[in-house]
Amino acid sequence: MAGNEMLKARVGKSEIPVLYRRVAPVYDAWARLTESTARRRCLELADIQDGECVLEVAVGTGLGFAEILKDNQSGHNEGIDLTEEMLERARSKARNTGRDNFRLRVGDAYDLDYRSETFDAVVNNYMFDLLPEEDFVTVLTEFKRVLRPGGRLAMVNMTIAERWYQSLWERLYQANPAWMGGCRGVQVAPSLTSAGFVKVQRETVSQMSFPSEVILALKPIDNSEERDLGEGAW
C-alpha cells in the first residue's frame, strides 16, 4: 500500500503507557535496526550548541537524549515521556554520559509544564505517528509556545510509504497496531505551517525499508515572519 493516505490512530492516549511498558525491554534493538539513521539526522538538523536550553518530548529509552547531553555539556537538558519504564532506561543512559545537567520526568506533550519561551530547541522522535491527526496542531502549538523566538523544532516520525516495499509496516499496523507500537505513517509538515512554524524543511529516510520523515522548523522571530508561513518549505 504505497500512497498518500494517512491511516487513523488506533491506540488511545491512555493505552500508550501500557503498551510501552511492554515494549521498553526490546525497544532499543528495534530502534537501532530501523530508526537510528533518522535519529542521527534529526540531531544534525537540530544543531544543538553547547550552553543552550533543550527539551526532548517523548524521550523514550534515551537514545537521542544521551547524544543531546554530549552536545550540550554546559547547557540545561529536559526530557519527558508518558512511560516511567522508558524513562528508567533513559536515566541510565544519561548517567553513563557522566553529565548531571539534565532532568527526566513523566510529562504530557499536550500540556507542557514549562513557561513560555523557555527553550532554544525542542526535539521529538516518533510520537506524532501515534497521535490522531486532529491533535497535531494542538500539540505543535504547545511546542511553539515553549520555544524562544527563532527556536528550533527537530522531529522524526514514521511516514507514509513511498515505495511498495515500505508498505509492509503499515500492513502490520492494520493487522494489529500493537505490533508497530501503535505507530503508522504520517505527514506532519502541513500541520507545522498551520501551527505557525516557518522555514519547514522535510527529508525522508528509509532504514530496513522502514520509512521516516525528518523535519526542522523554526518559531518565528516576529509577527511579520509568522504572516509569511512556510515559504518554500515542504
Describe the structure.
A seven-stranded mixed beta sheet has the order 3-2-1-4-5-7-6. The two termini are 23 Å apart. The protein has 234 residues and is an alpha/beta fold. The chain has one domain (13-224): Vaccinia Virus protein VP39 (Rossmann fold), CATH 3.40.50. The protein has helices spanning 16-34, 36-46, 63-71, 84-96, 136-146, 168-175, 189-194, 223-227, and strands at residues 53-57, 76-81, 102-106, 119-125, 147-158, 198-207, 210-218. Mean pLDDT is 93; it is low at 227-234. The chain is globular and about 45 Å long.
Give a brief outline of the structure.
The protein has 234 residues and is α/β, with parallel strands linked by helices. The chain contains 8 helices and 7 strands.
